[in-house]
């Protein structure tokens, strides 16, 4: 018996990286998974991999920054699978690496459209399905930089702070409907999002890993599954009394 048997889940940003790892793990644990992403080719690859392993998944093309598209896809997935139990808000972009006094309004808005409004839109349109079902679980991908600051990627870090707070606010609001809302906060995980940054770092990936893990107790970069297992726990009934939690999965970065 899988840990998500008879559950349906919609995951954004599931074409690659941690979203894909989460989708594959959820399907292996028995969930029917709505794989959604901007990237149709890779999204369909995720679905093919899940089906090849014996799981259930369908792909929907989705831009989380467009509310009409979000509503359409959430409704379609709930209709296809007969309801919605779990939403994982994973889609995200990192944007430009600038401090506050150099950021343009357009750069700020473009980042917030995906990383903040995307979580708002998906949550907004998933909640009515969960209320109709008598409960649900939402897991948001934030970051350690939604809890602490540093001197890089300012707009991204402020956006992830908003996701941390959206998590607590929605947890406080929707408990009366038996809907739980939690977030995960990874430090650096080796996914396509950071592979490019690592490749451009002087000395390449080994030097980047050394640099990025200097503040961690466990001095290696994260793997997508390290985080996906935390999301699985929070999404499952094992976490039935857990809501409003901002869970660091960070090799001990925020313990120091
Ligand atoms: N990789 C890290 O080190 C790290 C650390 C902390 C938090 N995070 C967060 O974890 C989440 C997953 O990160 P990842 O590293 O796996 O990223 P990734 O770049 O590997 O994958 C992100 C996915 O989101 C999709 N996406 C981007 N914009 C979208 C949009 N508007 N609508 C729908 N889909 C869209 C992309 O196509 C891609 O498939 C993100 O929210 C990211 O901010 C990542």
Write a brief caption for the model.
With 256 residues, the chain is of the alpha/beta class. It has helices at residues 17-28, 40-52, 67-81, 105-115, 117-133, 154-174, 192-200, 204-212, 224-235; strands at residues 8-12, 32-37, 56-61, 86-89, 136-141, 179-186, 246-249. It has a seven-stranded parallel beta sheet with strand order 3-2-1-4-5-6-7, with helices on both faces.
Strand and helix layout:
Elements: E1 8-12, H1 17-28, E2 32-37, H2 40-52, E3 56-61, H3 67-81, E4 86-89, H4 105-115, H5 117-133, E5 136-141, H6 154-174, E6 179-186, H7 192-200, H8 204-212, H9 224-235, E7 246-249
Parallel strand pairs: 1-2, 1-4, 2-3, 4-5, 5-6, 6-7
Helix pairs in contact: 1-2, 1-9, 3-5, 4-6, 7-8
The structure holds nicotinamide-adenine-dinucleotide (NAD).
Please describe what this structure looks like.
The protein has 256 residues and is α/β, with parallel strands linked by helices. Helix content is 46%, strand content 15%. It has a 7-stranded parallel beta sheet with strand order 3-2-1-4-5-6-7, with helices on both faces. Helix 3 (67-81) packs parallel to helix 5, helix 4 (105-115) runs parallel beside helix 6 (154-174) and helix 7 packs across helix 8 (204-212). The longest helix is centred in the middle third of the chain and has 21 residues, at 154-174. The N and C termini lie far apart (39 Å). 48% of the residues are buried. Nicotinamide-adenine-dinucleotide binds next to helix 1 and helix 7.
């Amino acid at each position: 018996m899988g840990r998500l048997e008879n559950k349906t889940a919609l995951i954004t940003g599931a074409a690659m990286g941690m979203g894909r790892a989460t989708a594959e793990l959820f399907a292996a644990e028995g969930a029917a998974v709505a794989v959604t992403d901007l990237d149709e080719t890779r999204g369909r690859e995720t679905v093919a991999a899940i089906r090849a392993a014996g799981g259930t998944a369908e792909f929907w093309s989705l831009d989380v920054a467009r509310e009409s598209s979000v509503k359409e896809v959430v409704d379609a997935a709930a209709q296809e699978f007969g309801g919605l139990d779990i939403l994982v808000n994973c889609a995200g972009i990192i944007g430009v690496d600038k401090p506050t006094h150099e950021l343009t309004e357009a750069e700020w808005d473009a980042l917030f459209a995906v990383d903040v409004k995307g979580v708002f839109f998906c949550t907004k349109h998933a909640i009515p399905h969960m209320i109709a079902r008598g409960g649900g679980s939402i897991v948001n991908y934030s970051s350690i930089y939604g809890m602490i600051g540093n001197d890089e990627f300012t707009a991204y870090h402020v956006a992830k702070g908003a996701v941390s707070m959206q998590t607590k606010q929605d947890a406080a609001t929707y408990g009366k409907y038996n809907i739980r809302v939690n977030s995960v906060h990874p430090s650096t995980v080796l996914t396509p999002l950071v592979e490019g940054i690592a490749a451009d770092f002087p000395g390449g990936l080994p030097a980047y890993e050394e640099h990025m893990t200097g503040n961690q107790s466990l001095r290696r970069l994260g793997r997508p599954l390290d985080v996906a297992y935390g999301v699985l726990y929070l999404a499952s009934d094992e976490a039935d009394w857990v809501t409003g939690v901002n869970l660091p999965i960070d090799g001990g970065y925020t313990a120091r």
